[in-house]
Amino acid sequence: MQNGLYRGVSYNPQGQPQASYWVTPACEIVGRNGQPVMDGNLCPVFPEKPYLIVLIGPTDAGIVPVPAPVIYERGRLLDDFDKDGVVEIGYLTTTGGSGRDWGSGGVEAFGYDPNTKRLKFHYILFGHKGGTAGNFLREMLVLYRVR
């Protein structure tokens, strides 16, 4: 911790550190001027915010040409993503789109233990049907143990 800020680290798929950044106790990523720029989305403790706003950068394919916001809504996650029988609190966002011969959609959720308020899981489901990309479904569940 330095000046009331924590150091956050992102990792590449091989588990190597990719970037580091400063984070406030409210899980806000801080810019060069020391002011919050956006919310973090893998907060170790439930941040108690009504929603989280996370910016995604331009994509290689140019589908998202400028940084765009993803808004995660807060609530009780009634779907039992981690199959433990507990209704978690957390944040969730959905996406979707379609064209004449294709359709796609997905969901992303961050679940927190309702008693300890600690991060339990990160869930992603995304599917696509038709068009030049073909058909696919990707599902990912990452479980966390925050101490």
Task: Kindly summarize this structure in a few lines.
By secondary structure, the protein is an all-beta fold.
Structure overview:
14% of the residues are buried. The strands form 3 sheets. Strands 5-6-7-8-9-10 form a 6-stranded antiparallel sheet, with no helix packed on it. The chain has strands at 6-11, 17-23, 28-30, 36-39, 51-56, 68-77, 88-98, 102-112, 119-130, 136-143. It is mainly beta. The chain is globular, with a radius of gyration of 17 Å. The mean pLDDT is 86. The protein is built from no helices and 10 strands.
Strand order of the largest sheet: 5-6-7-8-9-10
Helix content range: under 10%
Name the helix and strand elements from N-terminus to C-terminus, one letter apiece.
Answer: EEEEEEEEEE
Shape: globular
Mean pLDDT: 86
Structural class: mainly beta
Most strands sheet: 6 strands, antiparallel
Rg, nearest Å: 17 Å
Beta-strand percentage? over 45%
User: How many helices in DSSP terms?
Assistant: 0
N-C termini distance: 17 Å
**DSSP, total strands:** 10
Sequence stretches where pLDDT stays below 50 over 5 or more residues: none
